[in-house]
Amino acid sequence: MIAGHVDTSVGPAVFYRIPKLSEGTEVVIDRADGTSAVFTTYRVEEHPKDEFPTGSVYGATALPELRLITCGGRFDAAGGRYLANVVVFARRTG
Q1: What is residue 63's three-state secondary structure?
Q2: Which CATH number belongs to the domain containing residue 62 in this structure?
Q3: Residue 38 sits in which domain range?
Q4: How buried is residue 84: exposed, middle or buried, by Cβ count under 10 Å (0-12/13-18/19+)?
């Protein structure tokens, strides 16, 4: 699981493009040992903050999987936060 900001008060952040990912997108994770793990997305979901899918994000999987999480949905300017989370589900493919 990797979480990151979608944006900041000064512009796009590391996960700015996460909400636009679609099924079949390849995600490459570079590891500290110099190798890479390749994952392919199979689902992108948006959930209100109070309905975060904890079980499907943090639950056990039969094979290696990846979750990318960022904020999304409508931005509440008065509260200074997004009202939802975007969760990307991916399976290891290489």
Answers
A1: coil
A2: 2.40.260.10
A3: 2-92
A4: buried
Over residues 13-64, the pLDDT tens digits come to 999 999 889 999 999 999 999 999 999 999 999 999 999 999 999 999 999 9
Model-level pTM? Answer: 0.91
DSSP H or E stretch at residue 58: helix 54-58
Sign of CA dihedral 24, 28, 75, 12: negative
Cα torsion 91, 62, 59, 72 to 10°: value is 10
Q: Which two tokens stand for residue 94?
A: 């290489």
Tokens of 25: 């997108």
